[in-house]
Structures are given as structure tokens and as C-alpha cells.
Amino acid sequence: MIFVTGGAGFIGSNFILDYLVPGRDERLLNIDKLTYAGNPYNLAGIANDSRYLFSQTDICDETAIAALFAQHRPRAILHFAAESHVDRSIASPDEFIRTNVNGTFNLLEAARRYWNALQGEERDAFRFLHVSTDEVYGTLGPQDAPFSETTPYAPNSPYSASKAASDHLVRAYHHTYGLPTLTTNCSNNYGPYHFPEKLIPLVISNAVEGKPLPIYGDGMQVRDWLYVGDHCTAIREVLAKGKPGETYNIGGWNEKPNLEVVHTLCDILDQLKPKAAGSYRDQITFVKDRPGHDRRYAIDARKIERELGWKPVETFESGIRKTVEWYLANPQWVANVRSGGYLTWIEQQYGAQAVANPA
Ligand code: NAD
Ligand code: DAU
């Protein structure tokens, strides 16, 4: 049995769907509170799979988490659950501290107690895999080398500060108690089931609905994009072969300025779903910048390739086309998610021009 926290979110859903392939007989318990970002509909296809269990539980709930450990006796916990959206962390950081810091602490404590009582092979094999982000390293200048595992932490947003705090707790639990932890720091993911408050799914969804495509500031901020399936493969490799106490950077070697990403999305949409007149690029709207906006992220992913033999399979070109095709093929998924009130929230943060219909 393995535990996955946050399995109803974007990356967690993709991980579970990839993990439960035919022939793998291990059971998996998805522990998810189902916040606005948790969507059980992502996992509807495996809801009746006997290997899949779900518990709607808050990772901050000490009693409930301890009971799940005692009942299911996992060999590993893969910790994805988090508040994940930088803009939301700027507007209201409280929940980020609660879930990302206190929630991770609660899981570490529960895991430590459980692991302390294990013996022999069960104890040796246990792993706590903490899924984290490249944003803990702060921001890069145009000529700086990509983030490596030894880059000092310099988080700039409440989100990245909360993730940095959780990474430090994980590190401390290995160093102090010997808990067999693994930490991964990954760059920006994209792909199916990505909540359309994040740049790529927001632009695809807004484009086909004839809405503005909001670009923060000058649009020249750089992100290092990785197809979500490649992130999931990397996590499986780290779980299987990673050395306890180590951290692994995961990235796609795909640095792109935001404006270029949005142009690419518009060009693919122009091919796959042409407008009656003009290009989707006509919907691009420059809006005010994100406060404290990090200028550039880039990941040096050589350690995980050298030590664990992992490297990404998708290029940006192949992954982004697959992603647009998935959103066009799944309008019902988008409609379900979009019926929420998050557009109002974006309007409050970035002004009416970010959501107003230009037509
Ligand atoms: P997401 O926001 O799509 O999903 C988060 C999930 O966690 C949701 O299902 C939500 O219901 C659940 N959750 C939130 N608070 C919870 C709580 N208190 N108890 C239980 N469940 C709770 O996030 P994501 O994009 O899938 O990211 C997953 C993890 O990967 C996060 O830890 C994030 O920091 C990290 N990460 C994300 C990216 C990215 O590009 N999305 C890149 C690197 C690292
Ligand atoms: O780097 C990894 C991180 O990537 C993860 O840890 C986070 O959980 C994940 O949300 C993501 O953070 P970003 O802030 O980089 O992703 P987001 O999609 O919000 O924004 C990507 C870039 O696009 C960023 O420079 C801000 C910009 N942007 C975003 C939105 C939503 C826009 O210009 N317009 C937008 O409407």
C-alpha cells in the first residue's frame, strides 16, 4: 500500500492514473481534503478499481492521519497535497501556511511515529517522498546558471516560502530522526487536469471562450516547462531508487518566456480550432504585473539523470500540442471546473480587463 496526498489535484491525479496501470497490484490510498483544486472527477475512470481507495481527509487532522497509518500500514507516503497557486498566496497566505507548513509537519510526525514502530525490512523500505518546487530557490538573472540541488533557498512569495519551510522540516526529520525522506524540486508542469487558474490551461480555456488572455507585466518572465507525465515518471524513479535524505531537481530543459508560450498556444489553436476571423493572438491583453514576480526559473536536472537515469520524454512542442488537444477534447471537464467562482477572484486581483469579454 502507498499513500498519495493531494491525489485529486493536477499532478496527483496524473500520478495516480499513471501508477495504477494494469498488472500493478499494489493498493493506493488517496488522501485529499478536496479544496477548490481537488476534483474527484479526474479519477472517475478508476473509482471502482479495487486497488484504489479514497479518504476525504485534511492533512492537518492529526487524529485522522494517525488512524490512516495504523489502519493501512503504507510502505511509502507521496506528499503532493498543497495550496499551489502563487497569486492566491499573495491574496491570502493563511491557508498556505496551514496546509503547506502545518500539514506537512503533521504528516512528518505521523510518519515518524509509525516508522519508529516498524522493524526489519518494513522499516528499511519505508519512504516519505515530499513533492516540492523550484520556486524555493527564488529568481534567476538572464545569465545565471540554472538552479541545482545546492543553490541556496531564497523564496519570494508566500507560496514558495511555505514550500521552503516544508522542505526544511523534511530535511530536519531526516537529519534529526533518520526518517527516510526524499525531496523533489520540480519546475512548472503542464498537461491534462491542470486547473484553469494557471497560465497554460487558463489561456487555452479563455481563448476558446473568446475571453482575454491576460499577460502579467511585459510577459518576458521565463519558466522551465515540464510535461506532467514526465514529472510522474521522475517521482516513481525517485521513490524506487532515490537515496534517503537526498533532494532531486526535476525539469524539462524547456525555458520559455510567458509571451512565447502564449503565442505557441494561440498558433496551435489557430490550426486546430480556427476562428471565423483573425487569430487567437488578437485576444492577448497585457495586465498589471504579479507583485514580487520572479523573473526566471530554470532547473539543472543533471543529478536525477546521472544518479537515477531519468530524463524527460516529451519535448515542449509534443507536450504542448497534446495538452491543447486534451483541453479541446474535454470541454465538459473545463466547464465543470469553470463554473466555480474563480473568475471573480482573478478580476479582483488583476482588474476587470483580465476577464472582460473583448467582443
Ligand atoms: P493542485 O492545487 O492542483 O492540487 C492540490 C491538491 O491538494 C488538491 O487536490 C487539494 O484538494 C489537495 N489539498 C489541498 N490542501 C489540502 C489539505 N489541507 N489536506 C488534504 N488535501 C489538500 O496542485 P498541483 O499543481 O497538483 O501540485 C501538487 C504538488 O506539486 C504541490 O505540492 C506543489 O507545490 C508541487 N509542484 C507543483 C508544480 C506545478 O507546476 N503545478 C511544480 C512543482 C511542484
Ligand atoms: O515553478 C513551479 C511552480 O509553477 C509550482 O510550484 C506552482 O505550484 C505552479 O502554480 C507554478 O507557479 P507559477 O507562478 O510559475 O505558475 P502560473 O501558471 O501561475 O504562472 C506562470 C507564469 O505566467 C508566471 O510568470 C505568471 C504568468 N501568468 C500567470 C497567469 C495565471 C500570466 O502572465 N498571466 C496569467 O493569467
Automatic annotation (TrEMBL):
Q: Which coenzymes or cofactors are required?
A: NAD(+)
Q: Name one Pfam family in it.
A: GDP_Man_Dehyd
State a single Gene Ontology molecular function.
dTDP-glucose 4,6-dehydratase activity
Gene3D superfamilies (alphabetical): NAD(P)-binding Rossmann-like Domain, UDP-galactose 4-epimerase, domain 1
Which of UniProt's keywords are assigned here? Lyase, NAD
Enzyme Commission code(s) on record: 4.2.1.46
Name it. Answer: dTDP-glucose 4,6-dehydratase
What species is this protein from? Herbaspirillum chlorophenolicum
